[in-house]
């Protein structure tokens, strides 16, 4: 009996220990499952392209962003409460169009009082001159009367000017892109009420390398395209070619683009500007745009060398179809990854499955 009791006690004592061991094992398994899998030794399969010189013949495309510098403010020309304002964001307005009014009732009342004073002061002035002629007053009295009359006339003229400026007028044609005041608010002279932007003419600033700038002349036409409107082609006209290049030997070229068609471009839109050059062949260091991991706006590529990849920032230039010029960052013969970048990071191992 005693031995059975001892065995029972041992079993009861071992059960918590077994449970603790089981829980510890499960915890370790969960923690192991949470640990990131080390894939540093796993080679990512990639497709690469060889960096090379490509011959460009006929036309070259440059990236640009549309801008507008024809922005005007609509300001109050006199002080008072805005009695009416007939614009909203997006409203189209014409140059010289009356878009609102400022209540000038107070100024009109002041003008009436000033005109009454002028009548009285004119009479006082005339009387002073008569008295002076009869030696019944002195010259100072006449001078003072003339001064008071002239001052009141000046006050009346200022009030008439303020009343004439009660209309709120748009200084240019365009679209209302900002409205800061509404009817019922009080404004002082010069207070900005709204902003009007002329979107009928947009501009594109292009950075052109020195090897191409000599082919571009003021008045030259260029074709404008955008991924936002893949089926549309717009025309731009060169209105400025910088006489001075930057540190990278690029020249600023500005184009004006008429934006009055049925399809409207927008300021800030990323576009492609295609210049047509004389039939003179030129060679550029170019890569396929598929190699750019973050697109044309932030040109970064992975360069393959000895089984690993290096992330590299580029300075790019003109575009030609599916290819883009590389100004700095790559050399002829290097291999850039064009497929499989999504799984890569700096220093990742890679295995080439295809060379284009």
UniProtKB/TrEMBL annotation:
**Main localization category:** other
Domain Multidrug resistance protein MdtA-like barrel-sandwich hybrid span(s) in chain numbering? 70-197
As given in the record, the signal peptide range reads none
Q: Transmembrane stretches, by residue range?
A: 6-25
Annotated InterPro entries: Beta-barrel_RND_2, MdtA-like_BSH, MdtA-like_C, RND_pump_MFP
Q: Give all residue intervals belonging to the Multidrug resistance protein MdtA-like C-terminal permuted SH3 domain.
A: 287-340
SUPFAM superfamilies named among the record's database cross-references: HlyD-like secretion proteins (SSF111369)
Location(s), subcellular: Cell envelope
Q: Where is the CusB-like beta-barrel domain?
A: 205-276
List UniProt keywords, sorted A-Z. Answer: Membrane, Transmembrane, Transmembrane helix, Transport
Q: Tell me the protein family, please.
A: Belongs to the membrane fusion protein (MFP) (TC 8.A.1) family.
Question: Which PANTHER family would you find in this protein's record?
Answer: HLYD FAMILY SECRETION PROTEIN, MULTIDRUG RESISTANCE PROTEIN MDTA
The entry's protein name is Efflux RND transporter periplasmic adaptor subunit
Species source reads Dyadobacter subterraneus
């Amino acid at each position: 009996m005693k031995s059975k009791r001892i065995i029972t006690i041992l079993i009861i004592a071992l059960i918590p220990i077994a449970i603790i061991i089981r829980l510890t094992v499960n915890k370790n398994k969960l923690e192991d499952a949470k640990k990131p899998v080390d894939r540093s030794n796993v080679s990512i399969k990639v497709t690469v392209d060889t960096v090379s010189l490509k011959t460009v013949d006929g036309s070259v495309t440059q990236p640009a962003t549309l801008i507008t510098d024809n922005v005007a403010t609509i300001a109050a020309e006199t002080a008072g409460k805005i009695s009416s304002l007939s614009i909203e964001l997006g409203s189209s307005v014409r140059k010289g169009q009356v878009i609102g009014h400022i209540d000038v009732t107070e100024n009109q009342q002041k003008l009436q009082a000033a005109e009454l004073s002028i009548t009285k002061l004119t009479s006082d002035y005339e009387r002073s001159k008569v008295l002076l002629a009869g030696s019944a007053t002195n010259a100072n009295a006449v001078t003072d009367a003339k001064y008071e009359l002239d001052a009141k006339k000046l006050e009346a003229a200022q009030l008439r000017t303020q009343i004439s400026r009660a209309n709120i007028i748009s200084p240019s044609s365009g679209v209302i892109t900002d409205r800061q005041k509404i009817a019922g608010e009080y404004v002082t002279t010069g207070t900005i009420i709204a902003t009007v932007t002329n979107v009928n003419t947009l501009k594109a600033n292009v950075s052109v390398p020195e090897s191409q700038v000599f082919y571009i002349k003021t008045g030259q036409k260029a074709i404008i395209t955008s991924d936002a409107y893949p089926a549309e082609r717009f025309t731009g006209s060169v209105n400025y070619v910088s006489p001075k290049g930057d540190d990278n030997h690029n020249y600023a070229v500005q184009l004006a683009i008429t934006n009055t068609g049925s399809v409207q471009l927008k300021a800030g839109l990323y576009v492609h500007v295609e210049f047509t050059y004389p039939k003179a062949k030129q060679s550029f260091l170019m890569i396929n745009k598929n190699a750019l991991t973050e697109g044309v706006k932030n040109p970064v590529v992975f360069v393959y060398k000895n089984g690993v990849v290096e992330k590299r920032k580029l300075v790019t230039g003109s575009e030609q179809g599916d290819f883009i010029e590389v100004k700095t960052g790559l050399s002829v013969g290097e291999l850039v990854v064009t497929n499989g970048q999504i799984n890569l990071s700096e220093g990742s191992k890679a295995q080439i499955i295809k060379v284009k």
